[in-house]
Structure of Response regulator transcription factor:
Amino acid sequence: MRALVVEDDPRIAADLRHALAAAGFRVETVGDGETAWFRGGTEDYDLIVLDLGLPRIDGLSVLKRWRAEGCDSPVLILTARGAWTERVEGIDAGADDYLPKPFRMEELVARARALVRRKGGRADTRLQLGRLGLDLSRMQATLDGVPVALSPLEFRLIAHLAAHRDRVVPATELLEHLYGDDDAREANALEAVIARLRRKLGAGVIATRRGFGYMLVGT
């Protein structure tokens, strides 16, 4: 799962990155509205956490631009502003949820997971795909009911394939969700993760569609 955190306070941004990464998200952060508008409008995110009090372009204007341009990523507004009129304005602009500061990280993570599940049409945190089971809240995989130890990177990959199991997922999309802008965004790095998953879950779980990408099969 790929998340964009838009927060101009470096301390809060670092705390959000840490909490969401621990919950299985691949997190990217930006600190101003103009950069956020570009990134959210040109990249595919499973979740955006958006502060309203941003430099250059305020968060509410960024959100309105995203929605007008067709960006449908779930957006959780995060702000120190607590007036009910501002909450209504944020929801009317296209926000999916609203969390005023100060807040508990546990609540933010729970809301973030709920938004991702809602977008995927799921109410439960657990998925059962034939022999393969995934608990998204605990980041736990099972095969025939037996726990399988996966690294955070491996779990993010299999969870993304599970969320899009009705289609072939391009390698470029998987690289973006796994690595973001890191230097490790190379095809051989992705193939290495998939090879490890096949050893742990079975060779027939992830199929390669040459020239197109990967998808879950045999589950």
Residues 29 and 104 are 19 Å apart (CA to CA). The chain has eight helices and eleven strands. The mean pLDDT is 86. The radius of gyration is 18 Å.
